[in-house]
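Title: Comparing notes on inverse folding

I've been comparing how different people in this forum approach sequence design from structure. To keep things fair, I'm posting one structure and asking everyone to reply with a full sequence. Here's the target:
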């Protein structure tokens, strides 16, 4: 036996996780009423698993031995490709927030809808990427994602949107930790994705076309 997993599509649940033998209902947890109130679980055991290699980049991943291997229920028939990268729990690292998985020849941002079966057969090793995080007045529900460069600001703008949707019990914002010059390559992505408050700490963002 490796661990329990929720059998129904994870999209039907919000802020519900399994840790060891305990179902954790976080603040704001919801269940899609259309599937009823029963949470179906399935055991992941050694005889019916597939696995992908992951690079946790200094972090840890719940439900694994942190040995660079993530195991999941073997997929057969019509279920092949059902398990997506977005279904892998977010890794954790002290003082940081998980930003995204990267991989491939150029270490590019991996689409979270990429299937684990495709990752496994292609030999891609997803690598965890991190952004520094602090907490406003040490309140855990007010994370501040720290950015120092235009690249980090563009990433944080996209990541904060995802995190806010995934963790409605927390209010994610971005903290500018140094003066940033924003060129036309990053201006549009930032403006399209940014949907939170910016804490400037006396620093400025300058658009440099």
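Reply #1:
Here's my take.
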């Amino acid at each position: 036996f490796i661990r329990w997993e929720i059998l129904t599509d994870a999209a039907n649940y919000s802020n519900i996780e399994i840790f060891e033998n305990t179902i954790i209902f976080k603040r704001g947890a919801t269940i899609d009423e259309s599937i009823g109130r029963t949470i179906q679980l399935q055991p992941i055991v050694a005889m019916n698993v597939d696995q992908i290699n992951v690079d946790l980049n200094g972090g840890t991943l719940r439900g694994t031995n942190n040995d660079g291997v993530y195991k999941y229920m073997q997929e057969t028939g019509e279920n092949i490709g059902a398990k997506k990268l977005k279904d892998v729990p977010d890794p954790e690292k002290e003082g940081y927030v998980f930003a995204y998985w990267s991989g491939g020849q150029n270490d590019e941002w991996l689409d979270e809808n990429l299937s684990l079966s495709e990752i496994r057969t292609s030999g891609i090793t997803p690598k965890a990427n991190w952004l520094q995080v602090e907490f406003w007045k040490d309140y855990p529900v007010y994370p501040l994602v720290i950015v120092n460069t235009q690249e980090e600001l563009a990433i944080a703008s996209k990541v904060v949107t995802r995190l806010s949707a995934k963790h409605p019990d927390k209010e994610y914002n971005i903290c500018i930790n140094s003066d940033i010059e924003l060129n036309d390559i990053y201006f549009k992505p930032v403006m399209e994705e940014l949907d939170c408050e910016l804490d400037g700490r006396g620093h400025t963002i300058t658009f440099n076309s």
